[in-house]
Amino acid sequence: MKGILYGIGVGPGDPELITVKAVNILKNIDVVIGPRTQKKGSSLALDIASPYLKPDAEILELVFPMVYEEETLNTAWESSSNEILNQLNLGKKVAFLTLGDPMLYSTYIYIYRLLSKKAAQIETIPGITSFCAAASRLGFPLADTNDIISIVPATCERKDLDRALAISDTVVLMKVSKDFPGIIKSLQTNNLADNAVMISKCGHPEESIHYNLTSQEALKPNYLSTILAKRSSK
């Protein structure tokens, strides 16, 4: 009998922001996939999930390199999906952990697509996203009435970023560490800079919050940084 793969979102970082359903599934998991990069010593998602695992759960830390070379990424995803498939063919219950939600800018999405083509049994458990946690933490309403909200990876082309900013009442900017000064300029151009705030590592012990972003272009945000911005006319 084949096993089942659970894609489990463990939330943004606060260990209490994990769903009851995720906890109940983790208690019965045979193999836990804790994705990490080659430069990272351990998996943060695994740290969050660890208290809920049974003592004999097998930990499998698969490496997903943080590069933009398609061939390298495809090789890593194919290798990892084959390793997971081997576990499923042994009848194991496997959990693939991810920060935030599994279906939002997550490595799990690529594994999900590959294994879906191989008829694997898969169930995805949603998680609290970093920007929803940040909005609650900051008292920052994301949208009300007919507000248009856009969730944008700041790594996209500048013209695409500006196009999204131009039509949005509220913007969630993720992956802001690449070109922070350029992002601030785009916010200013689109009348979104005055009501913007950046939070880094929301829910973690190292959490930091930054207002007045136009005067802090020298900041070097880490990878787990998100900007919430609202149009000044609102």
UniProtKB/TrEMBL annotation:
EC code: 2.1.1.130
Position of the signal peptide: none
Pathway it works in: Cofactor biosynthesis; adenosylcobalamin biosynthesis
Gene Ontology biological process terms from the UniProt entry: cobalamin biosynthetic process; methylation
Coiled-coil intervals: none
Domain Tetrapyrrole methylase, chain residue ranges per copy: 5-210
Keywords: Cobalamin biosynthesis, Methyltransferase, S-adenosyl-L-methionine, Transferase
InterPro entries cross-referenced by the UniProt entry: 4pyrrol_Mease (IPR000878), 4pyrrol_Methylase_sf (IPR035996), 4pyrrole_Mease_sub1 (IPR014777), 4pyrrole_Mease_sub2 (IPR014776), CobI/CbiL (IPR012382), CobI/CbiL/CobIJ_dom (IPR006364)
MF (Gene Ontology): precorrin-2 C20-methyltransferase activity
Enzyme class per UniProt: transferase
Domain of life, per lineage: Bacteria
PANTHER family recorded: COBALT-PRECORRIN-2 C(20)-METHYLTRANSFERASE
Protein family according to the UniProt entry: Belongs to the precorrin methyltransferase family.
Identification of the protein by name: Precorrin-2 C(20)-methyltransferase
Annotated organism of origin: Desulforamulus aquiferis
High-level lineage: Bacteria, Bacillati, Bacillota, Clostridia, Eubacteriales
Gene: cobI
